[in-house]
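Writing this down once: the sequence line spells out the residues, with the fold written below as integer tokens. I am pasting one below:
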Amino acid sequence: MIIDDMINILNLEIIQDCDRAKNFSNAYTSDLLSDVMGNAQDECVIITIQAHKNTIAVATLKDSPAVIICNNRTIPQEMIDAAKDECIGIFRSDKNQFEISGILYSAMV
């Protein structure tokens, strides 16, 4: 799936744009960043409520093209700036992690 399709399917708010033609084949849902570091596949989309710049640091380690912040969390400017520097998209949803994960999974299988 490409990022642009993900944005449309999930009706995501674009906080920090990225290469919307970028392809990804997996996503990982966790609010524990050490779990993401240890278990997420490289180049996956990260689904979380962790809205801070450390999430972008982990996304960089995993070569993630995008992070989805759930529950309509406020996203600090330092996170947006870090994502811009690393060319990582930040998208927001008012849905929770379970809903976003389920919709995305259904669209990808």
Q: What stands out?
A: The chain has five helices and five strands.
